[in-house]
Amino acid sequence: MNRTSYKELFNLEGKTAVVTGGLGILGKRFCAGLAEFGANVAVVDLDEKRTKAFAQELTKHYQKKSIGIACDVSSPSDVKAMVARVVEEFAEIHILHNNAASKSADLNAFFAPFEEYSLVEWRNIMSVNLDGMFLAAQAIGSQMIKQGKGGSIIQTSSIYGILGPDQRIYEGSYYLERKINTPAVYSASKAAVIGLSKYLAAYWADKKIRVNTLTPGGSESGQNDVFVKKYSARTPLGRMGRPDEMVAALIFLASEASSYVTGQNIVVDGGLSAW
Ligand SMILES: NC(=O)c1ccc[n+]([C@@H]2O[C@H](COP(=O)([O-])OP(=O)(O)OC[C@H]3O[C@@H](n4cnc5c(N)ncnc54)[C@H](O)[C@@H]3O)[C@@H](O)[C@H]2O)c1
Q1: Which is the closest atom of ligand 1 to the Cα of 47?
Q2: Checking phi first, is residue 156 left (phi over 0); if not, alpha (psi -120 to 50) or beta?
Q3: Which of 123, 158, 172, 253 could form a disulfide with 190 if both were Cys (CB 3.0 to 4.6 A apart)?
Q4: How many A from CA of 24 to the centre of ligand 1?
């Protein structure tokens, strides 16, 4: 019987993937998933030592060469240098996971009430969450066009890019001993990511570059019990996500398994957005 090996469609052997925000709670899982399916991974994040150490761990564990690159995705010169470094190492780039997002160095400014939110902080977050995706997509998309073989770009949004946060879940909610909420700039930046993905999907379709959004729901990562309970109660599956549960959707979007999928948003949220 002459038929496609469906399993083979997920194989990323011989591919190079760039993951921004690769040291994050989800970022590390995304890098590991891509490496396990055979890709060489460029782990891109702010801290040089930690990106290199994590890349070494990946190389050792998955027997695929990974490299760590320090890069502030909001800086055009950093992004340019990062892409040059990946090309120098691997010659080509096939997958970009635009995934970095900033929680800001100043958490008081980040979590400030909307009425008092500073324009400086708004721009600061936008410069990473949105401008950073623009810069990386522009640089790596251009590289993919030069290579002439297409590619796959995946951009991480958030459930709060498609829904407004229910403010009731924040009463008594803490994360790492700090009262939490979701600032408007986060929602606005994550909604914009979906628009950017759709635009680029249409714009680069003729170049065979597919562009999709991956939208995670809230993952459990140290929030207090009050938050976990309130968030879980709002979710049809009755619980928060686990970071590992976001990875399979990425592998699908990164690989040939999704060869006819572009401009879409895969929402991995335990059904939160379904009711
Ligand atoms: N964890 C969740 O529950 C959740 C839910 C919905 C969406 N998301 C989204 O998923 C993505 C990954 O989330 P995460 O939980 O791993 O976040 P995280 O905060 O743990 O990691 C984000 C990473 O981005 C890096 N980063 C910040 N600014 C940067 C910059 N200027 N240049 C390069 N790197 C920078 C940070 O150093 C960090 O390692 C983010 O886009 C986030 O908004 C996460």
Answers
A1: 37
A2: beta
A3: 158
A4: 5
What domains can you pick out in the chain, each with its CATH number? Answer: 12-164+181-220+243-269 (3.40.50.720)
Over residues 40-88, the pLDDT tens digits come to 999 999 999 999 999 999 999 999 999 999 999 999 999 999 999 999 9
Q: Helical H runs in the chain?
A: 25-36, 48-62, 76-90, 107-110, 119-129, 131-147, 159-162, 184-203, 225-233, 247-254
| Active centre residues (catalytic) | 186
| Concatenated DSSP letters of 174-235 | EETTEE----HHHHHHHHHHHHHHHHHHHHTGGGTEEEEEEEE-PBPSSB-HHHHHHHHHTS
Among 43, 45, 129, 196, name the best residue to mutate to test ligand 1's pocket (greatest count of ligand atoms within 8 A of Cβ): 45
Identify the band that residue 177 occupies on the pLDDT scale cut at 50, 70 and 90. confident
Q: Which residues line ligand 1 (CB under 6 A)?
A: 20-21, 23-27, 45-46, 71-74, 99-103, 128, 132, 156, 158-159, 216, 218-219, 221
Q: Can you say whether residue 135 is alpha, beta or left, with left for phi > 0 and alpha for psi between -120 and 50 degrees?
A: alpha
Q: Is the pLDDT of residue 252 over 80?
A: yes
